[in-house]
Amino acid sequence: MADNSVDQSSNQLLPLELVDKCIGSRLWIIMKGDKELVGTLLGFDDYVNMVLEDVIEFETAPDGTITPRKLDQILLNGSNVCLLVPGGEGPIDNLEKKK
Questions:
Q1: Mapping DSSP to helix (H, G, I), strand (E, B) and coil, where does residue 70 land?
Q2: pLDDT at residue 91, as a whole number
C-alpha cells in the first residue's frame, strides 16, 4: 500500500522564520497595555527583542483618543509584544479606512 501522506515539514513556517522574513519591512506591533508601534524592523533575537527605526508609537488614552509620537530608533523588549502584523499601518490608518 502506497504512503499518500504529505511531508508537512517542507510547508511549515516557524514563528521566528516569519519574523526573519520581515527584516527591512514595516511592522505593526501591538503591545500589552495601551501602546502600539509601527516601524521598520532592523533585527531581532530569539526572545523577539527588536530593533526598529522610523517608529511611530501610538498610545491610547482611557477616553479612546490616540496620541502618536515619532521615534528615530528603538530597542523593543519582546516580552511585552502581543501581536506582530507584517505590513500593518497602525491604528490611525485603520480607523480612517473604516469611515
A1: strand
A2: 87
